[in-house]
Specification:
Layout lengths: L2 E4 L9 E7 L6 E2 L4 E6 L4 E5 L4 E6 L5 E5 L3 E6 L5 H7 L45 H15 L17
Antiparallel strand pairs: 1-8, 2-4, 2-7, 3-6, 4-5, 6-8
């Protein structure tokens, strides 16, 4: 089954990059770990390694293309016995965003009315109570600290019991 190679995110903040150079060409065999391309981000140029093995069936984005979005298909690998046309059909148009000419026109799906989700009711609180936004972590920490102050027999695992027994 053909494998689509996607534009990788080379940093947590990367949204797009420049496909600077291909180290492969269509028809080349690649193995996992082979350096297949160089990608430039706003910070550095990095090498991209193949994660699968196969034959390069089609390069979708030419070298030098700027502003390639992360997760956009950039190439297709095919297995032995498969052809580029198999890759184009099975990738559902990932190659250049077009479906093959032999693909039938599908009727548009009927629009289904989505159910409305009701907003959660406001929690009941006495008049004049100040509501403060907090995280679950902070709420749990505060509740545990309050319980520990209220009951001297409550302590966290890892604390020395001796400090609660007056030693």
């Amino acid at each position: 089954m053909p494998t689509t190679i996607l534009m990788p995110a080379l940093s947590p903040t990367m949204e797009e990059g420049t496909l600077a150079k291909w180290n492969i060409k269509e028809g080349d065999k690649v193995s996992s770990g082979d350096v297949i391309a160089e990608i430039e981000t706003d910070k550095a140029t990095m090498e991209v390694e193949a994660v699968d093995e196969g034959t390069v069936g089609k390069i979708l984005i030419p070298a030098g293309t700027e502003n390639v979005k992360v997760n956009e298909p950039i190439a297709i690998l095919v297995d032995d016995g498969e052809s580029v046309s198999d890759a184009e059909v099975k990738s559902n148009g990932a190659a250049g965003g077009q479906k093959p000419a032999s693909a039938k026109q599908e009727a548009p799906e009927p629009e289904v009315e989505k159910p409305q989700i009701a907003a959660a009711p406001e929690p009941e609180a006495p008049e004049g109570t100040e509501m403060v936004a907090t995280t679950i972590r902070d709420a749990l920490r505060d509740a545990m600290a309050e319980e520990m102050r209220r009951d001297p027999d409550v302590f966290l695992m890892g604390e020395e019991v001796a400090q609660y027994q007056g030693a």
